[in-house]
Amino acid sequence: MKESTVGRIRTIWQTFDMALNIPAIDKQHLWLIAMIVELEQDLENEDPVKMEDNFTRTLTRALDYTIEHFSLEEKILEIVKYPKLGQHRVQHTRFVAVLRRRARERVTGDYKKAALNLLRNLRTWLFQHILSEDRGYMDILTAHYEEIKDWLELQLGNSMHRDEIEDLYTRVNNPNGKFHQTEFQTIGEDNLKIISELWFRYKLKTGIAIVDMQHLWLLQLLVNTEKLHRQRLKQEIRSEILTVKLKEALSATIDYIKEHFGTEEAIMRKFNFHDTNSHMKQHRDFNALIGDLVLRSKDDDTDAISKLLQDLKEWLISHIAVEDKKLFYFFRSRLGEVNDFVRQLNQQGKIHIWKDAVSIYKLLVEYQEAPSLHV
User: Fold this and answer.
1) Looking at the domain covering 189-366, what would its CATH class be?
2) Between vectors from CA 16 to CA 192 and to CA 183, what angle results, nearest 5°?
3) Which one, 87, 228, 275, 366, has the greatest CB density within 10 A?
4) How far is 315 from 298, CA to CA, in rounded Å?
5) In angstroms, rounded to a whole number, what is the distance separating the alpha carbons of residues 8 and 172?
6) Quick one: CA dihedral 288, 290, 293, 294, positive or negative?
7) How far apart are CA 35 and CA 61, in angstroms?
8) Is the dihedral of CA 343, 347, 349, 352 positive or negative?
9) How far apart are CA 342 and CA 338, in angstroms?
């Protein structure tokens, strides 16, 4: 498996905090993530012949996964007398039915469509079942883990994909401390984890792509600036070097906030948002609020910088969580038009869409948008 693929798997694993800390189960869950990532990469290949081969391979592996993993998981839950085993079995049965439907679709010959449907189903299972239902048995399984540990490892050792799974588990967990190069290398995995926690904890998704993308990039800028500020307070880096970096980061954050406000206001004016004046007033009030603090921060006032960063984060989170979500309810029937308008703004150089911002958006928003399972 390519290093870039392993890096992507590792990013998803850590960003969404997927480890149950039960190695035998974690190994198989990583196997599912590997299928998702490889299918995503396959979909970038427009060759119809390869798409057929890739889809067939992934579907076969997914069926292997359900047979092997579900059987093992159900045996474990039966041994530890998990009270919701019956409900868990029903969910397993539903997912197998979904995969069988995907297999029937293959006959139509539209392999790209079938692959996209399969990808959505795998993502759905990952987030609705593993991140939710499987966490329900963590306590009872952890309590009995020492009793069944050897048996578990023996069962996993009999897997037809044993070597592949073990290799992936080892590489993702990096026992030697060597980190894989990923698309989020410049952002940093620690920062990405913090961004993810803020995004999901405060439910910041608005449903408008450019707005969500800019919000995520603002969070990235804030998280990075806070990190630099903490390092400076702890004197982890030479003060004069860090002072320059911190001021640059603060300046970049403030500038991007202005660009973001400009983007929102351009969209509101273009499509006659009913509450444009009130929304713009909140933007102006915020700019006035931080104006004095920005001036003081230029004088190297550490208290002012701390307050500025805290006010920035608190205001943005509360504003996004309440006011910006109103935009979606107004624009939801015209999202296609909004996206076309945003493309025009981008082509005219009036807004900037950074590659890293797109990557964060794809990870935290597209993965969040997995649809419900339907048989």
Assistant:
1) mainly alpha
2) 45
3) 228
4) 21
5) 10
6) negative
7) 8
8) positive
9) 6
